Amino acid sequence: MVIQKKYHFYAGHRNVEAGEKCGRVHGHTYKVKVHCEFPSWDGDIAMLFSEIDSICERVIKSFDHYLILFEQDPLAELFADANEPFISVPFQTSAENMAVHLFELLDEEGLPISCLEIAETESSNVIYSPSNL
Ligand SMILES: [Zn+2]
Question: What is the bridge-based pairing of β-strands 66-70 and 87-89?
Fold first, then answer.
């Protein structure tokens, strides 16, 4: 049994390794789909949707309305010096890396997550599923 839930958050970022356009600071409405897998489902409720929401919303919304910067991005130091709020991550902020990061954060919270999809735009979607690598 798989339960899929959808979330979204708004955030700014840049990825200087992904060309001039993506290297500029810009924002997305990140759309996130979380798949929770229950391989030993016994016909009862697998997990309350509200329990999934309470974990996912806390983790995913922690990025909402922030600028997400690679910790080695020179802008991170400027923002820190200016005492401006931002989120520092230990990777370039590609959709692929964001998918892995969100997956790991949700997994660490005990969610039975099997797959995470993230979309920065309507036409592009990254799907991360460690069991299918
Ligand atoms: Zn982008």
Answer: parallel
